[in-house]
Design brief:
Elements: H1 43-51, H2 53-61, H3 87-127, H4 130-136, H5 147-152, E1 157-158, E2 165-166, E3 170-173, H6 174-177, E4 179-181, E5 199-202, H7 204-208, E6 214-215, E7 220-222, H8 224-228, E8 240-244, E9 248-254, E10 258-260, E11 264-268, H9 275-284, H10 286-291, H11 303-307, E12 310-313, H12 316-356, H13 361-371
Parallel strand pairs: 5-10, 6-9
Antiparallel strand pairs: 1-2, 3-12, 4-11, 5-7, 8-9, 8-11
Helix pairs in contact: 3-9, 3-12, 3-13, 12-13
């Protein structure tokens, strides 16, 4: 369990597992290492105890040290009392919660695979120019590309600021292709901007923990008055978000209307430019984006510098075909992320109820069985 801020507050907790007895896990001094005690506690049960808000909240309350580098002393946990059911019940609780975690992990891996496929298509079509290369070599078709689109592709290349590109395609500053906007943070000392707010407000912190480039929720929300204080207002679903500092490079597509702070560059995409193309373009060109950043304390890319970065703009039919090829994958990713949010909420709600005995093991098994 991470013991340093902000990792502890963010729930940076993990299990070390090995399929054989050989490898040994090591942690730095910024971890508290927790194991089950033979005959008393099961290690997997101990893991879920550390995930419990009661335990994590207590640990946070025990932090010491200067602001920004606070740590919880390992000894502080020795004063925390927790319910300890009999070992068979501990194992049953860990198994129930582990079933939910297994489903979450399965979804995560599926999303990772789908993202990889989408990146591979982008790389093939718009970086390696595989379909155009194939046509130039005399091929009559290209696997994965609709025949009607392949038939319209050029069979030659033209020089550009980015090097040779398919004839007829163009290179333009990204600021001319999509609407690039920033945001800001309304005064946190003004309750009218925050209390009772229902409008999502995104910061790089909200993007840091994403396991897929999908923004479904934010930690804080604004009121109508708060949104009015953000220059870009509420951005529509489908907006591509890029963290522009601390650090540069978090990426996501907003699935909800959202306002952003000054640490995010938002890209509203016109209908003819799929937002998934823009997202994958940013991933593929992150080195170029970072090269346009500056700053002494930390690197930051300004909207002005970002807008000038050259972007390849393919033929509209090719872009539409790409959108069609990856959109279904992205919708599956979104569905999996929504399911994972629900599964995690059920897991976190069951944990204290199971530990306290408020819910019986068999009742929890039925709940989990319906979820899995």
């Amino acid at each position: 369990m991470a013991r340093i801020t902000p990792c502890l507050e963010n729930g940076k907790i993990a299990r070390f597992r090995s399929d054989d007895a050989g490898p040994v896990g090591h942690g730095s001094t910024e971890f508290i290492v927790i194991r089950g005690r033979e005959g008393v506690t099961d290690t997997d049960f101990a893991y879920y105890l550390t995930r419990w808000e009661e335990v994590r909240g207590y640990a946070v309350s025990q932090m010491t040290g200067t602001s920004g580098r606070q740590r919880v002393p390992t000894s502080a946990l020795s004063h925390l009392e927790v319910p300890v059911p009999p070992l068979p019940e501990q194992r049953a609780i860990a198994n129930i919660l582990g079933t939910l975690d297994d489903k979450i992990e399965l979804n995560r891996r599926m999303c990772q695979t789908l993202e990889g496929i989408a990146r591979a298509i982008f790389q093939s079509w718009f970086v390696d120019f595989g379909p155009v290369q194939a046509k130039a070599a005399g091929a009559k078709r290209f696997r994965g590309m609709p025949q009607t689109v392949f038939d319209t592709l050029p069979a030659a290349f033209t020089d550009s600021p980015l090097g040779p590109i398919p004839t007829g395609w163009t290179v333009r500053p990204i600021g001319e292709v999509v609407d690039v906007v920033g945001g800001g943070t309304p005064s946190t000392e003004e309750p009218a901007y925050w209390e009772g707010g229902t409008h999502a407000f995104c910061t790089p912190k909200d993007m840091a923990g994403l396991t897929a480039p999908v923004l479904l929720k934010t930690e804080r929300c604004l009121t109508d008055a708060g949104v009015a204080r953000v220059s870009s207002g509420q951005l529509p679903p489908g907006t591509v978000l890029l963290s522009s500092r601390a650090p540069i490079g978090y990426l996501a597509i907003a699935e909800i209307p959202v306002s952003v702070n000054q640490g995010i560059i938002a890209m509203r995409c016109p209908r003819e430019i799929p937002n998934l193309y823009v997202l994958l373009w940013a991933q593929a060109n992150m080195d170029r984006i970072e090269a346009n950043a500056n700053g002494s304390t930390f690197q930051e890319i300004s909207k002005r510098n970002f807008r000038s970065i050259p972007m390849l703009v393919p033929d509209r039919r090719c872009l539409a075909a790409f959108g069609g090829a990856v959109e279904a994958m992205y919708r599956r990713i979104v569905a999996a992320q929504k399911q994972n949010r629900s599964l995690a909420a059920i897991r976190d709600a069951l944990l204290p109820k199971l530990v306290s005995g408020e819910i019986r093991i068999k009742d929890a098994e039925r709940i989990v069985g319906r979820c899995a």
